[in-house]
Design a protein that fits this description.
Number of helices of chain B: 15
Number of helices of chain C: 15
Shape of chain B: elongated
Shape of chain C: globular
Strand order of the largest sheet of chain C: 1-3-2-4-6-5-10-11-9-7-8
CATH class of one domain in chain C: Alpha Beta
CATH architecture of one domain in chain C: Alpha-Beta Complex
Order of helices and strands of chain C: HHEEHEHEHEEHEHHEHHHHEHHEEH
Distance between the termini of chain C: 16 Å
Oligomer: heterotrimer
Largest sheet of chain B: 9 strands, mixed
Chains: A mainly alpha, B alpha+beta, C alpha/beta
Radius of gyration of chain C: 21 Å
Strand content of chain B: 15-25%
Strand content of chain C: 5-15%
Distance between the termini of chain B: 81 Å
Helix content of chain B: 40-55%
Largest interface: A-C, 50 and 73 residues
Radius of gyration of chain B: 30 Å
Largest sheet of chain C: 11 strands, mixed
């Protein structure tokens, strides 16, 4: 599987990461090697095999519909880098992201 | 050239629970910013979701009410995207195995019945709210983050805006009658996205979809779809291509405006949510919920028409909202004559609601009082004229009609020992009327009734007086 | 205070008898950490004002007044929790992880937070925003990872017990590198509420101690159901100390040939010697095969990285943690905060995971990995149908030098080949010291079927009793 700079840039965009021009080539090669290592799985015959996405001994776990108040908003807000009047403040939103 | 439209709708209902879907934060309206939140809603490091059982229960109710097939095994999935109102940068939803599939509802458009398919419905969490300031900043409130939603995705079975309108009306009615959601578009507890494509008649392959999100009202849905039909036709007729895009309905101009062109499906990187174990929905639980499912609007309509004998039109007016139907049922339950109750509800009460721009929940006249009043009309205790006075008083002040009528001495005079001598006297005093009656002039009797009414200050029972006068006049 | 020759029982007795006070124990522990940590860099935050709980009950609570170290990816209310990342360099939690609440209820004294590979991604504790931790046996070598800080703190005698977390070997590999015991319980045995998520379907909190019984004592406290975690088991938690001191006669021990083939020379001899001692004590040794072993590394890296890529999206510079300066707009805040806040290894895994989940890759990577995971689980089920435990080496080689492998991620990933399967299958697994190879400790790995930590403790305790490795002192700590 050939991994190109374009592949890496696309995945970086999905991941909200950026790689500077001077590292992107070496990083692309490294990611290519890692992805090809991961791609060894393609040789395993999994015809008719179920997927395992977790190994839990429970199912159908619910909570009862009982509301609970968190005591302090100030506590939750304490780590916010920028805030105003109880809101979390963020720079202007350019485009809602659902179209990568 | 003729064109065919293909319309599909995605409707989000906010499910009516006390706490959020995956966190115990309360679900409230108008709470102070960020106060109905906890560490889970904030996606603090290390937190985990836990599903509110009522969310699933309410979802099953809607699935049952729409003849949907409830999946015995489901799992939640993550939909990954970045936005400030989405703190985890993923939404927990059901992508691979939704709550239910393959349902339908029946609508009637221009006198024709049509079945519209429901592709699937799934439960998921709502996002918080961004408010855009004018100063280059947005402000995030997470109170709404984690409020439970049910998304109902229709099949692309609708062929014109009227069908879409009918589908929405019916779907809202069905969901409302289950009690699973408040279905208020103005409060955001019901939200509608539409997509529409057109193709030349005879062409099999569907045209390119245009999506419209967060329409404000059913009327906007209808108008925006109608506008899109026309716009897309013109694009095709002029040799152009419809773009895969999202458009917005502009209320002021009645037109749709391009928001964004899509280059393909968004890459949400869906995968199974590892923090939540799978769900096995037992048939016994579904049966249990079925038992508690309130009577559907369809069942109520049958009862009103077949058991109560009211007109179909009246039944439909009553069934426009669950509140009015519940009110009607309570009045009948309290002993009101079904036909009279329907008349009073659809004329007097609805008139009052419209005039004052309020809902039936806001009035002071209880269904029990309405029933009492109707009983008094029926047994002749009060006249229809008096009843209107009583209605106004009970409506405005919540006064008990029976007590009011007694206190004000409004009881109708039906006592023969009082009325008979009055009738004899009035006929004696008006010999001309006897002549007129004999000559077949009906007016004569009206005149005499008026006299008696005058003497009794309107309290005499007109029905009784009429009968007595007839008898008296014929005996002369 | 140095714990090299102490254990929970001995400390509990001293506290009970009034020979030492819990206050002075906490104070002395912190003083010793400050003195010795210049060499090790095992800690990110030392809670200098740590005080024991009030009304200590030494009879009811074995851990009463005992200082404990916590890996810094476990949330502690009011104690900075960083996951060793620049991204969370200033993060102050406002709630406790369930394991912390349980330790507090058992009156243990939390003395601070230990170093790790950033977000637990790594096996050397070199990938930390707070610098590399050094191995107490040889300060030029890595302590392993990602729970390298906890391992070094225990091995050097700074504390008697530490909590770690294990997603692909992050407790067992550093335990082996440092000559201590470490156990990753069954997935679902310990609540993950408050564990900063890496690979949610693999992560499990566990214990690292010098002595096997001490881990049993701590696991007794932290295990069990929890209303916050939908994946934690509601099974009854046995008294794990009851498996200490038993004999292994008749114990059915499986030895996978793929695991033995992964080691050679002196290492193989040391491991074989442990297996022989089990045999000599009457255990039944069966050579078995785990045929999918060659696929566990790619399988694990796809699953763990996919989950991580999603789990780490919340670190966006908006609500907490690092936010980049000089940003023009929202996208800028996201991209710059994340690119500056995360280290290289974390970015690699996010990239791998996003790739594996992206349109066009999902079926070939994530879905295929989930299917291969089923085959790996089946391999274990087959062996456990006829055996009580699986034993073999924990690591392929003893600790490597600091800086030696950091530039070769694939080599680094392949080091995890022996520990990963237990996470994929969710089974309990531990590493108990087996001996020294070239002067560095190596470990024997013991796995059992799900929720059978008892047999893991029983086997480990037997090995400990037999080889008495605990009598050795790490060379790097001698002045």
């Amino acid at each position: 599987m050939k991994i190109t700079k374009e592949n890496i840039n696309h995945v970086a965009k999905l991941s909200r990461l950026e790689f500077s021009d001077d590292v992107i080539d070496s990083f692309t090669k490294q990611m290519g090697d890692i992805i090809n290592m991961a791609d060894q799985l393609a040789e395993v015959d999994t015809e008719g095999v179920e997927e395992t996405v977790q190994v839990v001994d429970r199912d159908t776990v619910y909570r009862q519909d009982k509301p609970q108040h968190w005591e302090s908003r100030a506590e939750l807000m304490e780590n916010v880098p920028e805030k105003a009047d109880g809101f979390i403040k963020v720079p202007v939103i350019i485009d809602k992201d659902d179209n990568e | 050239m003729n064109f065919k439209s293909t319309i599909g709708l995605e409707v989000h209902f906010e499910l009516k629970t006390k706490s959020k879907i995956f966190s115990p934060s309360p679900v409230t309206y108008g709470a102070e910013v960020n106060t109905a939140t906890n560490v889970i809603d904030w996606a603090m490091p290390g937190v985990l979701p836990k599903l509110n059982k009522d969310v699933y229960r309410l979802g099953i109710m809607v699935a049952l009410a729409t003849h949907s097939h409830i999946l015995p095994t489901t799992h939640f999935d993550r939909k990954n995207y970045y936005y400030p109102d989405n703190p985890k940068a993923y939404q927990i939803t059901q992508f691979f195995q939704p709550l239910a599939r393959d349902g339908y509802i029946e609508v009637e458009v221009r006198g024709k019945k049509k079945r519209i398919g429901i592709h699937e419905m799934h439960i998921e969490e709502d996002a918080g709210k961004n408010t855009h300031g004018a100063n280059g900043y947005s402000y995030v409130d997470l109170n709404r983050q984690g409020v439970p939603l049910l998304e109902v995705v229709s099949e692309p079975d609708m062929e014109d805006p009227e069908e879409a309108y009918a589908y929405l009306t019916k779907l809202r009615q069905i969901v409302q009658f289950t009690g699973a959601s408040d279905v208020k578009m103005e409060e955001g507890s019901m939200r509608v996205d539409t997509n529409i494509s057109i193709r030349p008649a005879g062409q099999k392959e569907l045209g390119t979809k245009v999506e419209m999100k967060n329409l404000n009202s059913f009327d906007h849905v209808r108008r925006s779809l109608a506008y899109e039909e026309q716009r897309q036709q013109q694009v095709l007729l002029s040799g152009g291509k419809v773009q895969l895009s999202t458009r917005r309905f502009d209320e002021a101009t009645g037109k749709t405006v391009l928001e964004r062109v899509k280059e393909g499906d968004a890459d949400y990187r869906y995968f199974p949510e590892p923090d939540i174990a799978p769900y096995h929905i037992k048939q016994s639980w579904i049966d249990e919920i079925k038992e508690t499912l309130p009577e559907s609007p369809f069942e109520r309509r049958n009862r009103y028409i077949n058991d109560y004998g009211i007109k179909a039109y009246d039944a439909d007016v009553i069934l426009q909202t669950k509140e009015s139907s519940d009110y009607y049922d309570a009045a009948v339950q309290a002993g009101a004559d079904p036909t009279l109750a329907a008349n009073w509800l659809n004329t007097q009460i609805n008139g009052y609601l419209n005039e004052n721009q309020i809902g039936i929940k806001d009035i002071k006249l209880t269904p029990e009082h309405l029933a009492e009043m109707i009983k008094m009309i029926k047994d002749g205790t009060i006249s229809t004229k008096i009843a209107k006075k009583v209605f106004k008083e009970s409506m405005e002040n919540g006064t008990d009609p029976k007590k009011y009528v007694e206190d004000k001495g409004m009881v109708q005079l039906s006592d023969l020992s009082v009325l008979e001598p009055m009738v004899t006297k009035v006929v004696d005093d008006n010999p001309q009327s006897v002549e007129d009656f004999k000559n077949g002039k009906d007016r004569a009797i009206g005149f005499l009734v008026g006299q008696i009414m005058k003497q009794t200050r309107g309290k005499a029972n007109p029905k009784v007086v009429n009968e007595l006068l007839n008898k008296e006049l014929q005996s002369r | 205070m140095n714990y090299l020759n102490e254990n929970i029982d001995s400390l509990n007795k001293k506290l009970k008898d009034g020979e030492i006070s819990a206050e002075s124990l906490a104070k002395d522990t912190i003083e010793n950490i400050k003195k010795t940590d210049e060499k090790l860099n095992a800690w990110i935050t030392v809670k200098e004002d740590a005080k024991p709980a009030e009304n200590l009950d030494f009879n009811a609570n074995k851990l009463a007044g005992i200082p404990i170290a916590i890996k810094d990816n476990i949330i502690t209310n009011g104690i900075k929790t960083t996951a060793a990342s620049h991204m969370l360099y200033n993060y102050m939690p406002m709630y406790d992880a369930t394991v912390i609440s349980k330790l507090k209820k058992a009156q243990a004294t939390i003395v601070g937070k230990t170093n790790l590979d950033e977000f637990a991604m790594g096996s050397s504790t070199e990938h930390s925003y707070y610098g590399a931790t050094h191995n107490p046996w040889n300060l030029d070598k890595v302590p392993g990872g990602s729970s390298g800080g906890s391992a070094a703190a225990v091995a050097s005698g700074q504390v008697v017990a530490a909590l770690g977390s294990d997603t692909g070997g992050s407790i067992r590999q550093p335990a082996a590198f440092n000559g201590i015991f470490g156990i990753k319980p069954t997935y679902g045995r310990v609540s993950r509420w408050g564990l900063i998520a890496f690979g949610s379907s693999l992560d499990q909190i566990g214990v690292m101690t010098k002595r096997v019984k001490d881990s049993a004592e701590v696991l007794n406290v932290i295990a069990g159901s929890d209303e916050h975690d939908s994946t934690v088991s509601e099974k009854e938690v046995p008294d794990f100390t009851s498996f200490i001191g038993q004999d292994v006669k008749g114990l059915r021990v499986a030895v996978p040939k793929e695991y033995m083939d992964a080691v050679s020379g002196e290492m193989r001899e040391v491991i074989q010697k442990q297996i022989d001692s089990l045999k000599d004590a009457g255990a039944i040794i069966n050579e078995v095969s785990l045929p999918h072993t060659k696929y566990v590394v790619p399988d694990y890296y796809i699953i763990a990285s996919s989950e991580a890529s999603s789990n780490l999206q919340r670190y966006d510079g908006i609500r907490y943690g690092y936010r980049a300066k000089d940003t023009k707009n929202l996208l800028d805040v996201y991209v710059k905060s994340r690119s500056e806040g995360f280290g290289t290894e974390v970015k690699r895994r996010i990239m791998l995971g996003s790739f594996a989940l992206s349109a066009g890759s999902y079926d070939r990577f994530f879905r295929q990995a989930a299917k291969v995971r089923t085959l790996i689980c089946d391999d274990f089920d087959k062996i456990f149908a006829e055996n009580d435990v699986i034993v073999g080496p924990t690591i392929t080689e003893p600790a490597f030098g600091i800086g030696e492998e950091v530039s070769d991620p694939i080599k680094m990933y392949n080091n995890d080949i022996l520990t990963i399967s237990a996470n994929l299958a969710g089974v309990p697994a531990a590493s108990v010291p087996a001996g020294l190879v070239d002067g560095m400790p190596v470990g024997l790995q013991i796995m059992a079927k799900r929720f059978d930590e008892g047999n893991v403790f029983k086997t480990a305790d037997f090995i400990e009793r037999t080889n008495k490795f605990y009598e050795k002192t790490p060379a790097g700590m001698e002045d």
